[in-house]
Design goal:
The complex is a heterotrimer of chains A (350), B (267) and C (283). Chain A is of the alpha+beta class and 350 residues long. Chain A has helices at 42-50, 92-102, 107-120, 136-149, 166-183, 194-200, 218-223, 228-233, and strands at residues 4-13, 16-26, 31-35, 57-62, 65-66, 78-80, 154-158, 186-191, 203-208, 211-216, 240-247, 250-253, 256-259, 264-271, 276-278, 285-294, 299-305, 308-314, 325-330, 336-339. Chain C has helices spanning 8-36, 45-52, 54-87, 92-100, 107-118, 123-130, 146-175, 178-186, 191-202, 204-219, 223-229, 236-245, 250-274, and strands at 37-38, 41-42. In chain C, α2 crosses α13 (250-274). The chains are: A alpha+beta (350), B mainly alpha (267), C mainly alpha (283). Chains B and C meet through α1, α4, α5, α6 and α7 of B and α1, α3, α4, α5 and α6 of C.
Chain lengths: 350, 267, 283
């Protein structure tokens, strides 16, 4: 078993900087998700760890061993690719056995490991087939089984579920989590899907513009985003951010008055859509509803408060219709205060 | 069938006939024997079916040798073009490097020049290098014709094989060469074979350079060209038929790749 | 980088570059050199000798005439065939195969095929005789009948080399998503408008390739002409062949080669310019 240490890794393509001096430690057996929008550098970082991409500077250590200048095959890790990269001219069995064969494992070991990996992914019945005869979901299972078969100490995954349909994705997510927890494999997982990252990871590294904005357990990232970007990228709907004026250490919006960590000037109040509860008229924040989207367990309301657009998850009994004005009060302790200038959370406020 | 679609299929059939009937008729000329050639007026079927004319043709002094030279030159061209073109195609498909555009320009230039004509100045050089009037010399010039094509087509083949397959092989313990041999090559092989066949036909069909560069070691095309004016008609038809038959088989063999090859060779 | 050493692509390209240098660039330079070198030094004497030859003007004229007639015919025919192919649902494979057979047929063989048809006692004459249009064996391929000889060469060239244009265009059609035509149809375009407004512009890159390839090869036309008409219909390359062998004058042959190359290059340049597709308008 081994952890991954990424130390001051920088990557530039010509004049463009893809990664800005970035460090990240993945503990032994830990599952870390690299989460971010496309172009944030998360895949580049993963490929640098794999040895598929060069770094401009910095070091990569796997299990304490500096692998920075080793070719991929000597880094002792496994990887699952976004488009699966299952070899089309080999049977499922041979695909899963590939890594073992390259390591010159003896026949009984190959047989045992392939059967075990196939069993974990429930594809024992497909071993004799070629990938062309499989569905996307099955191919994905083969790709994961191929990675598990070599019993890697470190597993890299590049958006492995993004090509599956929503239902399959949910199923695979749960299975992956169970299998990887069981095996205790150190995993670095790239995704742009925040539900995936939230559901799977021990810690999430939210990336933006070539740097890590926040590295924290899922609920911490969700509840206390380090920046406005993190708050709006993680969670659906994104966190609401209201720009307000502070005066004497508090802000007043309508009838709502909240203590804030600034004495004066502009400040941003961040609050999750489900943390705004209906209040009696004349006490809370007035919210003019423009669109109502009923979603079954709750309704998603979009409208304006304090002349800014916000979204509210409404689970109340009464039906709400567009044009109505609600009064909302945030749940105490669920408000994040952000600096209006740089968008960073103000320390010690939550 | 509606009249419109009847008309349509009649058009399709006409165009098929436009291709096939001339081939049938030269075949009839070749197997119709001496009488068939002078028969007047002719019928669609030859007066007699005899392969004697064809057999006689193949036994004529020089024909057998020319046929062998043609096959040898074409086989060498196939080997050279594939062996030189495939690595180039792989480099074009998988790397971005300084000088890439210069190489592409070189390839494009070969297309804009009538390469066979370049055989003219090569005579002198070939005499000096001992390549004049050898099958190897002909094959080398034919390789110059086929190589740019082979590089472009194999490059499009490799582009079509996802890079991730190779990367996965590296991750799971392959060197670059192993990954190429185990993963890329098996997938590209049918296409490479089609490219090789195409090179074979380019050489098999080439007339000008082969005529310029040989005197005794004629290829079949060069041989036919030189004896054209003094040989009897049925002899010429037999020669034409022998030239055509491999092509028909070849087109059948590579028909699946023809379009994929040209679709991407366009770029 | 460890996974991709920087020298690797050059290593892979080196054999083909060296080869093309020896068998393309070297003879190219040599041809040009040969054509301007005379016993006294460098001059255009060889070109003067070439241009002074009786056959030069007619060879030049014939070649251009041939290219001017054959290439447009082939493009038009191939476009028609490609359009037909899009409508064929059953048997498309076999039709396609038949139509592409001539692609593998050499120009010499094609010349011989059409010789079988058009010779004095050939099939065409037999058919014309049966229809009562001629009285007996008639020659079409002699120097006394330049028009029919020309027509015969055109027929043979169209028969032989339309297939390559067809293949390029069918491949090009395959790259155009069907939705564009369907969208045009929804917005009320007639089939002809769909063809001229949507298909043709999107087909431009393929047309360009086909035109360049065909034009360059058509300027090289040689064996078809030789097989059908012998020396009755001089073209540039056949004159080069004659100078090389019968007159043993390599320098004048080289001058011919340079002329053919110059014309081919000019044609390519023109196609590249006229049929330019702006990068932002690519598929």
């Amino acid at each position: 078993m081994a952890g991954i240490a990424i130390e001051n890794v920088r990557k530039s393509f010509g004049s463009m900087t893809a990664l800005k001096e970035l460090s990240l430690n993945v503990e032994d057996g830990e599952f870390v998700a690299l989460l971010g929008p496309s172009g944030c550098g998360k895949t580049t970082l993963l490929r640098i760890v794999a040895g598929l991409e060069t770094r401009t500077s910095g070091r990569i250590l796997v299990g304490g061993r500096d692998v920075s200048d080793l070719p991929p095959r000597e880094r002792k890790l496994a990887m699952v690719f976004q488009n699966y990269a299952v070899f089309p001219h080999m049977t499922v069995y041979e695909n899963i056995a590939f890594g073992l064969r390259m390591a010159k494992a003896d026949r009984t070991k190959v047989e045992r490991q392939v059967q075990r990996a196939a069993g974990l992914m429930h594809i024992e019945h497909l071993l004799g087939r070629h990938p062309g005869q499989l569905s996307g979901g099955q191919r994905q299972r083969v790709a994961v089984a191929r990675a598990l078969a070599v019993e890697p100490s470190v597993l890299l995954m590049d958006e492995p579920l993004s090509n599956l349909d929503a239902l399959l994705r949910m199923e695979m997510r749960a299975e992956l989590k169970a299998v990887l927890r069981e095996a205790g494999t150190t995993t670095l997982y790239v995704t742009h899907d925040q539900t995936e990252a939230m559901g799977l990871a021990d810690r999430i590294a939210v990336m933006h513009g070539g740097r890590i904005e926040q590295l924290a357990p899922p609920m911490a990232v969700y509840r206390t985003p380090a920046t406005v970007f993190v708050g709006s990228f993680v969670g659906a709907p994104p966190m609401n951010f209201l720009r307000c004026q502070a005066a004497d250490g508090a802000v007043a919006i309508g009838a709502l008055k909240l203590a804030c960590p600034r004495n004066s000037g502009e400040i941003v109040m961040g609050v999750r859509a489900e943390d705004l509860l209906p209040a009696t008229a004349g006490t809370g924040l007035p919210f003019e509803v423009r669109v109502v989207e009923p979603l079954g367990s709750h309704a998603l309301l979009t409208g304006t408060a304090h002349r800014q657009q916000i979204r509210v998850v409404y689970a109340g009994e009464r039906d709400v219709s567009a044009g109505e004005t609600l009064h909302l009060a945030p749940i105490a302790g669920r408000i994040c205060w952000m600096d209006a200038a740089d968008g960073r959370a103000i320390e010690g406020t939550t | 069938m509606r009249p419109r679609s009847l008309l349509f299929w009649a058009g399709v059939a006409t165009m098929c006939a436009w291709v096939l009937v001339p081939i049938w008729l030269i075949a009839a000329g070749a197997i119709g024997g001496r009488q068939g050639v002078f028969l007047w007026p002719k019928s669609m079927l030859p007066p007699e079916f005899t392969f004697s004319a064809l057999a006689v043709f193949l036994r004529i002094e020089g024909v057998g040798k020319a046929l062998w030279n043609s096959v040898a030159a074409a086989a060498m061209t196939m080997a050279f073009a594939t062996l030189l073109g495939t690595p180039a195609g792989y480099a074009l498909a998988r790397f971005s490097f300084r000088g890439q555009n210069a190489y592409r320009l070189l390839i494009l230039l070969t297309r804009a020049f009538p390469i066979a004509i370049l055989a003219l100045p090569l005579t002198v050089a070939f005499i000096n290098w001992g390549l004049y009037d050898t099958t190897l010399g002909v094959a080398l010039v034919h390789t110059a014709l086929a190589l740019p094509f082979a590089a472009l087509v194999t490059s499009s083949l490799f582009v079509g094989i996802p890079r991730e397959l190779e990367e996965a092989a590296w991750i799971f313990g392959c060197t670059r060469l192993q990954a190429f041999v185990k993963i890329v090559l098996p997938l590209a092989l049918p296409g490479i074979a089609a490219t090789g066949l195409f090179a074979f036909v380019i050489s098999w069909n080439e007339v000008f350079a082969a005529s310029v560069l040989t005197v005794r070691e004629r290829t079949l095309t060069a041989y036919l060209l030189t004896v054209l004016s003094e040989s009897p008609l049925h002899f010429r038809f037999a020669g034409g038929l022998v030239l055509i038959l491999p092509s028909v088989v070849f087109i059948f063999a590579v028909r699946r790749y023809l379009f994929a090859m040209w679709g991407i060779a366009n770029r | 980088m460890q996974a991709r050493p920087a020298y690797l692509p050059y290593l892979l390209l080196a054999p083909s570059v060296l080869f093309l240098a020896a068998l393309f660039l070297y003879p190219l330079a040599e041809t040009i050199l040969l054509s301007v070198r005379t016993a006294e030094g460098f001059s255009f004497d060889n070109y003067r000798r070439m241009a002074g030859d009786l056959n030069f003007a007619s060879a030049l004229g014939n070649t251009f005439l041939l290219v001017g007639v054959v290439v447009p015919l082939q493009i038009a025919l191939a476009l028609g065939l490609a359009q037909m192919l899009t409508k064929i649902t059953r048997g498309r494979e076999i039709v396609l195969w038949v139509w592409t057979i001539p692609m593998g047929v050499s120009d010499l063989a094609a010349g011989l095929v059409w010789l079988a048809l058009l010779t004095d006692r050939g099939y065409v004459n037999s058919a014309l005789f049966a229809l009562g249009l001629i009285d007996g064996p008639t020659g079409w391929l002699s120097y006394e009948t330049p028009v029919t000889l020309f027509v015969a060469i055109v027929l043979a060239e169209v028969w032989r080399a339309t297939a390559i244009v067809l293949v390029i265009l069918v491949a090009g059609f395959g790259l155009i998503p069907k939705e564009y035509g369907e969208a045009a149809e929804i917005f009320g375009a007639t089939p002809w408008q769909r063809f001229t407004r949507v298909t043709l512009p999107l087909l431009k890159p393929s047309l360009q390739t086909a035109l360049i390839l065909r034009t360059v090869l058509a300027f090289e036309v040689f064996a078809v002409v030789f097989a059908l008409g012998g020396r009755n219909f001089p073209v540039l390359v056949s004159e080069a062949y004659v100078w090389q062998f019968e007159n043993q004058s390599y320098a004048v042959a080289a001058a011919y080669a340079v002329v053919v190359m110059a014309i081919s290059l000019a044609a390519t340049a023109i196609y590249l310019r006229v049929l330019r597709v702006k990068p932002e308008a690519r598929l």
